[in-house]
Amino acid sequence: MTDIAEPRTSGGVAITAPRRPRLPYPLVLPVLAALVAVAATAGIAAGSVGVPAGEVWGILAHRLHPALADPTWTPVRETIVIDVRLPRVLLCGVVGAGLSVCGMALQALVRNPLADPMLLGVSSGATVGAVVVVVFGLTLFGPFSLPLAAFCGALAALVAVYLLAHSGGRMTTVRLVLAGVATAEVLSAVASYLVVTSDDPHAAESALRWMLGGLGGTTWDLLPIPAAAVLAGTAVLLGVSRPLNLLLAGEEAAAALGLTVHRFRAAMFVLVALMIGTMVAVSGSIGFVGLIMPHIVRLLVGADHRRALPAAALLGAAFLIVADLAARTLISPEEIPVGIITALVGGPFFLWLMRRRAAS
Amino acid sequence: MTPADKPGALQFEDVSVVAGGRTLVERVSLTVAPGEVVALAGPNGAGKSTLLRTCYRALRPTSGRVRLDGEDVWRTPGRRLARRLAAVPQESTGDFELSAYDVVAMGRTPHKRPFAGDDSDDRDIIMQSLDRLDIAGLAHAPFDRLSGGEKQRVLIARALAQRTGTMVLDEPTNHLDLRHQLDALHLVRGLGVTALIALHDLNLAAAFCDRICVLDGGRTVAVGPPAQVLTAELLAEVYRVDAEVTEHPRTGIPQITVLPGRDGPERSMPTN
């Protein structure tokens, strides 16, 4: 009976717990950046018409400054690289980075590592917003109509899920996931209904894009709004990475350490909804990127957001570029919606995570 | 390592907290003088944690004021308050990969601008805080996998890293072994800070605190030096136990011995 005072120390886990072997942080970012560069090169090079990697860089360098490379390629290839593949790869990078960063922020905000834009119904909310605009042909705000509507849908869904999961005091993982899944289902049904009952077959066709998640037919003019939102949003999140860290310690601790939790969380919900809205407006709802990437990043560099957010952005970008590459080459010339690829990878990962958490 | 901030006067004025139709704290008034260490005692559900939560901005009082040096803590910007008052809440767990070092580093947050990194001063303060709690060796261990007592020491170290002149601690010793209980309370005393500590162990409270405030059913039933407050009558009334209070022959500190009768002095205790 020597361990009455503190029976939980008897395992001695902590004493022997070594620091998880990690790559030194200054190395992580260059390695991940190189990964993005490799993925992007592959993404531009591969396709129905193969372009050698060297030529890809030649064409890009030539565009940057004509003196950098001599044009030894055909104009067709240059068109393919510059007008078809480059915008698509860039958009993949932007959306992948954005989803990953938003996933990480959401996980801190609801203090639950199973949070993800798709699982929380945020993406479905954005989809409903986007579908409404397309089906009813709303153009009130010109080119911003679509992202704006998607933003409103995302924010409404996020607030609804949060309130549903939070009612009656504490928020448990089970409640959060159930509320998210239920909200996502309802909103997906609404979006499907709108599409199916629409008279305009063209609208229905383009609406399907948001529901499956895909980046086919990306042109340059799709890029600026999501790119700006993701860049600015990521910069803001980096700026608030200390408060985000505090939330990991719990609401009580965050309040004691000077954070006005409710106000901060409300502001961050708006920001995340804005980012997800602009992304869903161009890419549809792509699931699991926001779930998997933050976990891998935390294993690599730890949970401190100052270190984890930049790494999450880079890893997310590389992942979605590769996933999109697989989506358009696996059964070429047919194209699989990229959301299917990420779900095939992410679903099993999610289940593994649930089991691991249940075991611990 | 001394706190950068001077000890503050912590003042509860007529503080009441009503939640879900239940009155958890009822018109409590208490002043903790600068540098004074006061224990908050009372049975489970007496309102100790609730009262503490009102001063570190986790729970807004329904009525009344909590002041630090005259300033209403609920009208003070959070960051500024966190530079003057640190809290050790009851153990919190997370599902994230935070190391003990990361948790203690959060104590520096109120002192930092948003984009500022931790400089060498911060790192020194963090490591010293861990060292003061005897857990420097666990700096890089995952917080989630520490034992209850180790977690508790990490949370105390975090409050230490805040370098405040005032501290509130909610049961900071309930998971600690005997040695570390003494160490933790010696540490808080030695800082010279104003401290309000919820404590279940009345003998520890008597040994380490200037005064004891006893709550029961959300109300203050006694406040004063340990020798005045800790009487057999009060223990019988508040805790419904039969206890003897003696002065310890070597320390002169009131010493409580609870007699192991199942039936309390007035009415029977539930058996389990």
From TrEMBL, chain A:
CDD domains: TM_ABC_iron-siderophores_like (cd06550). It is a multi-pass membrane protein. Keywords: Cell membrane, Membrane, Transmembrane, Transmembrane helix, Transport. Its main location: membrane. One of its GO terms (biological process) is siderophore-iron import into cell. GO terms for molecular function: transmembrane transporter activity. It is found in: Cell membrane. Gene3D superfamilies: ABC transporter involved in vitamin B12 uptake, BtuC (1.10.3470.10). The chain crosses the membrane at residues 27-47, 86-106, 118-138, 144-164, 176-196, 308-330, 336-354. The keyword S-adenosyl-L-methionine does not apply. InterPro entries: ABC_BtuC-like, ABC_transptr_permease_BtuC. It holds the Pfam family FecCD. GO terms for cellular component: plasma membrane. Belongs to the binding-protein-dependent transport system permease family. FecCD subfamily. PANTHER family: FERRIC ENTEROBACTIN TRANSPORT SYSTEM PERMEASE PROTEIN (PTHR30472), PERMEASE OF ABC TRANSPORTER-RELATED (PTHR30472:SF67). This is Iron complex transport system permease protein. It comes from Thermomonospora echinospora.
TrEMBL record, chain B:
InterPro entries: AAA+_ATPase, ABC_transporter-like_ATP-bd, ABC_transporter-like_CS, P-loop_NTPase. GO terms for molecular function: ATP binding; ATP hydrolysis activity. It comes from the Bacteria. Residues 10-242 form the ABC transporter domain. SMART domains: AAA (SM00382). Keywords: ATP-binding, Nucleotide-binding, Transport. It holds the Pfam family ABC_tran. This is Iron complex transport system ATP-binding protein. It comes from Thermomonospora echinospora. The lineage of its organism: Bacteria, Bacillati, Actinomycetota, Actinomycetes, Streptosporangiales.
